[in-house]
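User: Could you check the structure of this?
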Amino acid sequence: MIDYRDSWNTRALFQKKWPICRWLSERLEAKVLANCDHFIYCSTPILEKINKKFFSITQKSLLIMNGYDAAITLPASSRPKNKVLRIGYFGRMNDRSDSALNPANLFKAILKLNKPVEFVTYGPVSISQNWQEQLKDILTIHPNLPHRKAIDAMQEMDVLVMLYSDPIGSDEIISGKLFDYM
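Assistant: Sure, the predicted structure tokens are below.
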């Protein structure tokens, strides 16, 4: 069985840059797909792209979308309003110009806000010194949290942000983060 929460070679984010590496990776993926008994995927475009790029595996495929964990129960929200607008982001972030998780436009918008704001991140974050200096009193970076603690931290935010700035491959993304945020 193989489970694709993300594509392997049909999405630019994960494609190998060197032609020989891309060729090898595609051959390896085709072999894995041909030999798996069951293929699970989280969004229809993933299966459509694999069927087009390689061969049809529809007959051994099953769609299981990301979703909300019903086992997590949350108390009714009774927290007081924050004195500053707390914007939260949970997950990987990188401000390289070629990154699909580049927060530059979000940072520009935050700097234009005319009210007290705090931008809090949890997860692997790589932000240039330039942005850190511009956002010095606004940006707080924390490491990853266990899932349940992340859900609790989300409850403390006024706004939760999702980042994905690369239009190529965005059709197949239904992030599990969306369900956590809801």
